[in-house]
Amino acid sequence: MRGGTGFAQRFQKREYAKTKLFRAEGRGWGLLATENIKAGEFVMEYCGEVISRTEARGRSQVYVSQGLKDVYIIPLNARECIDATKKGNLARFINHSCQPNCETMKWSVLGEDRVGIFALRNISVGTELTYSYNFEWYSGAKVRCLCGATRCSGFLGGKPCGFQTRLMDCQLDIFPVWFFLLTYFPIELVANHLNQQFNHWSE
């Protein structure tokens, strides 16, 4: 289990791994490592505007009406979401893979919930960074996965694995997360699912 203090300091100081954007064929933007990253290392924080679930619901509807191509909204906790659609960092461009080399974890840093990206294994220079979006679609819709992994599941959907929650006292918890990127999904489908998900959280 990783120690808490060192990672908390890297969150606060924004000490991220070196990366660069590139065009991923058929998948929009992607992110490449420009330095070697060791297994277990903190890659970067998933940054954006922290908003309420109610605001997230409203924004998803606005984004639909505006016809935005890329929308990045993830749940942070039971009350809040992170919207990186218009204000965010490079983490929002990390693509999905069925065999990811990174994972998402929720940390509590100085009493605030933060989402970080961590390396699952050693990542060499020039390798694309990926993690599992862990989609769950209540509508039952299936969308073909474009990750290209050797053991690709073929479709995005099904029960999410959840992501790990690390507190500063190193207690471990599980909290589900869903990533909505319109490289894979039509905006109308995403908006419909967001509304279903918000209703599910409110039950």
UniProtKB/TrEMBL annotation:
<dbReference type="InterPro" id="IPR003616">
    <property type="entry name" value="Post-SET_dom"/>
</dbReference>
<dbReference type="InterPro" id="IPR046341">
    <property type="entry name" value="SET_dom_sf"/>
</dbReference>
<dbReference type="GO" id="GO:0005694">
    <property type="term" value="C:chromosome"/>
</dbReference>
<dbReference type="InterPro" id="IPR050777">
    <property type="entry name" value="SET2_Histone-Lys_MeTrsfase"/>
</dbReference>
<dbReference type="InterPro" id="IPR001214">
    <property type="entry name" value="SET_dom"/>
</dbReference>
<keyword id="KW-0808">Transferase</keyword>
<dbReference type="Pfam" id="PF00856">
    <property type="entry name" value="SET"/>
</dbReference>
<dbReference type="GO" id="GO:0008168">
    <property type="term" value="F:methyltransferase activity"/>
</dbReference>
<dbReference type="GO" id="GO:0005634">
    <property type="term" value="C:nucleus"/>
</dbReference>
<keyword id="KW-0158">Chromosome</keyword>
<keyword id="KW-0949">S-adenosyl-L-methionine</keyword>
<keyword id="KW-0489">Methyltransferase</keyword>
<dbReference type="GO" id="GO:0032259">
    <property type="term" value="P:methylation"/>
</dbReference>
<keyword id="KW-0539">Nucleus</keyword>
<feature type="domain" description="Post-SET">
    <location>
        <begin position="141"/>
        <end position="157"/>
    </location>
</feature>
<feature type="domain" description="SET">
    <location>
        <begin position="17"/>
        <end position="134"/>
    </location>
</feature>
<protein>
    <submittedName>
        <fullName>Histone-lysine N-methyltransferase ASHH1</fullName>
    </submittedName>
</protein>
